[in-house]
Amino acid sequence: MSFTYVKATCHCGKNVFQIPFETSKLPLASDLCHCNSCRHVTGTMGVHTAHMKGRPLTADSGPESQKPADLSNLSQYNVSSSLTRHFCSTCSAYMLYETTHEDGPSTFSVSTGSLERVEGIVKVGYHAFLGDTLDGGMADHYRVLDGVEIPRYEGEEGGPTLPLGWKAESISKKTDTSAELDDEKLAAYCHCKTISFYLTRATQEAAKDEATFWLVPAKDDDPTSRPRFMSGHCFCTSCRLSSGSTIRSHSIVPRENIIDPRTSLPISLATESKRPEGLKKYESSPGTYREFCGTCGASVFYCPSAQGKGHGSVDTDGEPSVVGIGVGLLDENDSGARAERWCFWSENLFHPEDAIDKAGLEAVKEAVKTAGSVSA
């Protein structure tokens, strides 16, 4: 049996493995899972993994020497009695998924975003558990790969499918009514609920300010329209290696609209005594911080450097004025996993030059151009 070895790493470099794949079965076509657990446990809009042959190996392993890797730098989170998710204790990158079996040894899958290459190794073969998203989630932004329409399963592969543009009845009703639009709140939480907060609406005045490009004004001719937060898909190396996902989706939100339910005040990230308990911080580059749940590993906040280009800035109290939020944390029961009542999805993809999955990049690029929320 011939094996192909691909290196997997996290952003901080404390976890580096060789991942063995059975060469004759490449490229793999695995599911992009949209289930509630996968979204809320990672903060991403879906989880894509590749099943390996055996266990992860040490970085210096190869055909002549296969040594099981030390996983002690990874934290474990048990989603169920048979599934353990392994994420980096330092930078939060989700790397490994371990399934236990009563009649045999554990099997492992690796997050595709942690691999140094995916072309010829693994691709998205189908969308799974779209029913959980209530609006199709990321699948509506990832439709056709290499000229082939990606199957959209409501649950597991082979079950009922859901058409492009599908929305659950509860979401359709809420989207189409103007009731209860004032004093709105949108809940957000990680899988273990250690981290939870809610969003409030930005004002129309703030959204119309040309300096706040991260806010999109309500339509003046639509009484149900409200300001929304600019949202998009990022392919940068830092996002990929600190999450384990080839695509990381953010909403850019003023901190004043991110409310800590314990205080009913804007969330505090700079003052240690006021920070949410259980929220861990990782400095991915000078002045740029990524915040994650220390229990379940969910990527929560992205706080860009005030010295860099874009929306990074700091208030006089040292708090970030604008924060990127992992869209996978948003409560799907409000308006679906894409949260289109709150998120305006940009056609512009962030850092496409860094993408390791070029075919996937093209798939998303084409889909967002015609997605309904772009012009909604």
UniProtKB/TrEMBL annotation:
GO MF terms, alphabetically ordered: carbon-sulfur lyase activity; metal ion binding
Keyword Zinc: yes
Entry keywords, A to Z: Lyase, Metal-binding, Zinc
Domain of life: Eukaryota
InterPro entries: CENP-V/GFA, Mss4-like_sf
Location of the CENP-V/GFA domain: 6-130
Pfam families, A to Z: GFA
Record keyword Metal-binding present: yes
Family listed: Belongs to the Gfa family.
Record's protein name: CENP-V/GFA domain-containing protein
